[in-house]
Amino acid sequence: xxxxxxxxxxxxxxxxxxxxxxxxxxxxxxxxxxxxxxxxxxxxxxxxxxxxxxxxxxxxxxxxxxxxxxxxxxxxxxxxxxxxxxxxxxxxxxxxxxxxxxxxxxxxxxxxxxxxxxxxxxxxxxxxxxxxxxxxxxxxxxxxxxxxxxxxxxxxxxxxxxxxxxxxxxxxxxxxxxxxxxxxxxxxxxxxxxxxxxxxxxxxxxxxxxxxxxxxxxxxxxxxxxxxxxxxxxxxxxxxxxxxxxxxxxxxxxxxxxxxxxxxxxxxxxxxxxxxxxx
Length: 279
Hints:
Oligomer: single chain
């Protein structure tokens, strides 16, 4: 038979003291409740860039090609000055689709603001794509968005200033707010291809160079880094995704004014590459 419930008198004494009113202990928080509490304590995520950046439809030379700057120096300088590095697509407009390149010629070769990350041909994307610069031995890490894990023969693209280069010892981690996936990324370099309409990155199968929309393509086995452009070889139609990060190139940035040369003093290269961060 089930036991009948009974009531304990709070005034009843035990060991000379009244038992008092029974107050049950709170139940342990469920895992979901615990997570909610932890989430409340977490600081709100901050945007990659909280301050306004200088933008505009025109271009100006930010750093001339001589002496130029390494990829890491370029990103640090642009971050400090709040300048938006011209994208690969924007440089294509200046180099191929107009004579705008004449006003920025002393920046060429130049880094673009288009950050790319690609794996070895046929290898599926994992949670990160990693590349070690063959000269500095610094490791560059690009975090792959969950929806792109498992993709292959593709390239991930982030445009400046929607990413940040974070320094962690000998590692450089690229954290991007917006990442696009471009499929059918060519596995064969040194050939001509059509370019995707958004970022100007070569895609699909090789075509003949006589097509004015064709772009000559450089890549290596795997890489994380900025694309680079020039006007001399291939009449400005070369898209280079193979350069070492320790190479010094010029930089072109967006500006609201008519095309002018920046009066900012160029970066002076040091003879030794350091593993530290900023300038």
